[in-house]
Amino acid sequence: MIEILPMEDREREKERLSGLDLGGGAPRVLCMKDRGEELGFAAVELRGETLRILKLEAAGYDPGEKPQGEQVFILDTLLRSAASYGETFGAQAIETAFPDFFGFFKARGFEMDGEHAFGPMSLIVKYE
């Protein structure tokens, strides 16, 4: 079973958020687990109507490499969960606060400017 919930351990959440480019929003960490084992996490914050992804990480992923197989699944699931979280609080746009994963985000329709990836929430959350 896979569960994605905001981290209950506030001290651990605070550790994950330390050193990140916080923009004054209310940052949270969404953690993906399988049978109690952490598979990855997304650190996010809301800034106005924009959900900022502060960090995206999958277990076993080396930032110098291209994500592969299960890592892509984990990152994609975390991205979708982050977008759903943002949409719940009225976010209309989504952007990253880091210059990584451009291929990953480009494949999902995001635009890039060399500093970060960005786009409307509708890239991830489908409205009908």
Cα(first) to Cα(last) distance is: 28 Å
| Overall helicity | 25-40%
How large, in whole angstroms, is the Cα Rg?
14 Å
- Unreliable runs: none
- How does the major sheet shape up? 7 strands, mixed
How many DSSP E strands? Answer: 7
Number of contiguous helices: 3
Mean pLDDT: 87
Q: Largest sheet, order of strands side by side?
A: 1-2-3-4-5-7-6
Order of helices and strands: EHEEEHEHEE
Structural class, by secondary structure, is: alpha+beta
- Overall form: globular
Can you put this structure into words, describing what you see?
With 128 residues, the chain is of the alpha+beta class. The protein has 3 helices and 7 strands, in the order βαβββαβαββ. It has helices spanning 10-17, 69-88, 102-106, and strands at 2-6, 28-34, 37-47, 50-58, 93-96, 111-112, 117-120. It is globular and about 35 Å long.
Pick out its properties.
128 residues, globular, alpha+beta, 7-stranded mixed β-sheet, 7 strands, 3 helices, single chain, 26% helix
List the helices and strands and how they pair.
Elements: E1 2-6, H1 10-17, E2 28-34, E3 37-47, E4 50-58, H2 69-88, E5 93-96, H3 102-106, E6 111-112, E7 117-120
Parallel strand pairs: 4-5
Antiparallel strand pairs: 1-2, 2-3, 3-4, 5-7, 6-7
